[in-house]
Write a structure and sequence with these properties.
Blueprint: E1 5-9, H1 14-25, E2 29-34, H2 39-48, E3 56-60, H3 66-80, E4 85-88, H4 103-131, E5 134-139, H5 142-146, H6 152-172, E6 177-184, H7 190-193, H8 197-205, H9 215-226, E7 237-240
Parallel strand pairs: 1-2, 1-4, 2-3, 4-5, 5-6, 6-7
Helix pairs in contact: 1-9, 3-4, 4-6
């Protein structure tokens, strides 16, 4: 059997890069899909993947635009074959208390974090169903479970993401396609490292394992949920947060 083809949106970001590398190590052909506006980061990303023997490739996409996602799938299908795995890791923040939040701040976050998942899933589900195999993993957030001050837009998008996951999981379960969510806690990414140190220290003090997560912690969970043998796991929300939030 040829290698499974995986698309990882937000693929050149902190979590996305680790996910791409983990899947490549597991034998997948990985497409890191992201905006093409950050030429310096793209160049660095391509250099970082030189040891993966062509198993990780970059393709441009704007997940907030349906037509861009459609064009991405057409290119990937032509160059690499049918998509077996989709990891929706693209996400942004535009933090503000609701009393000060602009319509643009709301729409931008919903457009990437939630609309983007619809835009990408819509492109792959028909083919996955026809072939009788597919793995979709949506990257949610601990803040979608708990809420966070100044993040009504972000929390709403990440909570809505798992509602989407559960509904789609029910639609596709008999077709050999699983749909799951991962809810990371705070991880060592540029987004988290931009938080002032005093606030980060306070966050860490409330995490039972005593540290923030590493991108590799999330990447290993993605590999687990996208394995061929993971066909009996669907509609799951897997928290990877060091015990920062626990529930039934």
């Amino acid at each position: 059997m040829s290698a499974r083809t995986a698309i990882v949106t937000g693929g050149i970001g902190g979590l996305g890069t680790a996910i791409c590398q983990q899947l490549a190590q597991a034998g997948r052909q990985v497409i890191a899909a992201d905006l093409d506006s950050r030429s310096d980061r793209i160049a660095a990303f391509v250099a970082e993947q030189s040891g993966y023997a062509g198993k990780i490739q970059f393709e441009a996409v704007n997940v907030a635009h349906f037509a861009s996602c459609q064009a991405l799938l057409e290119r990937v299908n032509a160059r690499y074959g049918a998509v077996d795995i989709l990891v929706n890791a693209a996400g942004i923040t535009r933090d503000s208390s609701l009393r000060k939040m602009s319509e643009q701040q709301w729409q931008e976050v919903i457009g990437v974090n939630l609309d983007g998942v619809f835009n990408m899933c819509r492109q792959v589900v028909d083919g996955m169903c026809e072939r009788g195999f597919g793995r979709i993993v949506n990257i949610s957030s601990i803040n979608g479970q708990t809420g966070a001050f100044g993040q009504t837009n972000y929390a709403a998008s990440k909570a809505g993401l798992h509602g989407f996951t559960m509904a789609l999981a029910r639609e596709l379960a008999r077709k050999g396609v699983t749909v799951n969510s991962i809810a990371p806690g705070y991880c060592r990414t540029p987004m988290v490292e931009a938080i002032p140190q005093a606030i980060r220290d306070q966050i860490i003090s409330q995490i039972p394992v005593g540290r923030i997560g590493e991108p590799s912690d999330i990447a290993r969970a993605v590999e687990f949920l996208t394995a061929d043998a993971a066909g009996y796991l669907t509609g799951v929300l897997l928290p990877v947060n060091g015990g920062g939030f626990m529930s039934f």
